[in-house]
Amino acid sequence: HAETGGWDVTYERDEIFTQNPTGRRTVYRFQVEGPNAFALLESLSGAPVPETRFFHIVTLRIAGHEVWALRHSMAGGPGFELFGPWDEGPAVKQAIIEAGRRFGLRQVGSLAYFTTAFELGWIPRPLPAIYTGEELRPFREWLPATANEATWALGGSFASPRVEDYYLTPWELGYGHLIKFDHDFIGRTALERMANQRHRVKVSLVWDPDDVAHVVRSYMDTDQRPAKYIEFPLSTYATWQYDAVLDDQKRSIGISTYVGFSWNERAMVSLAVLEPEYATPGTRVTVLWGEPDGGARSRPWLEPHRQVEIRATVAPVPLSEYARAHLAAARRGR
């Protein structure tokens, strides 16, 4: 740790806009992605895009500025995440927009941006496993009361008195294939102990459209308390969304996390972590939607509501067939 580890280093935090009182950041960040992304970037730089492995960085020249380009994907298609000094951002963005007109470039906006995770199969915010263990006590005590780890909300129908039940492993998040024990790293011993254990599996859940429509209809029913409001397109109402997933015996078999509506798939989708015997595509499960106490503990931030069961069907990760094909090729270096 830079402050407590005795290292001869300096660091600078580049806070997101919602937590940045200066109104500016150190680095801009744009994402260009889709079937024509490479052609667009080549037209901007005047040269072929360098051969780049997935999640590696190259440099491009755009509008006279050097731009760092991370081979990345937020929606499962070919593209790059572009970044550079903040003051150069407007010129780079304007050049991208102007050149993009003949390639069909669209600025999708922030609401659509956050829905790409459903199709890609990326769980963006698992609860950090920092709230237990004596070895992490100094870190917890170092954190200010205003830190995200202290102020962000934990919500959903899954309820357990043990915070450990909210922790997710690299295997459950879909990162098991990235773990290599051919070098030393922090946490290696713990992961080696877990490697051959039984792991829950990350899946997509496609919510039953009739059950979703029933939830929406409940808002107009004045004879009973409505179901928890579903926001569109991003329906996650807590930073750490943990909804219980049940089998046909009402037994908890996992958790549903990031949830919302995908226009491309014309479906209400969530990303879930399930016991392996329920992870086969086509398996029917139930998502319990709404807080255990109907929102009483979270008032006035959550409206009073009743819990409802929403049927769902297990589907692959990524859900998008286009994303599955592209990411498989990208990881093979194509």
Automatic annotation (TrEMBL):
**Entry's transmembrane regions:** none
Q: Name one GO molecular function term.
A: transferase activity
Keyword Transferase in record: yes
Keywords for this entry?
Transferase
Q: Name one Pfam family in it.
A: GCV_T
UniProt domain GCVT N-terminal: residue ranges: 26-122
What name does the UniProt record give this protein?
A: Aminomethyl transferase family protein
The beginning of the lineage is: Bacteria, Pseudomonadati, Thermomicrobiota, Thermomicrobia, Thermomicrobiales
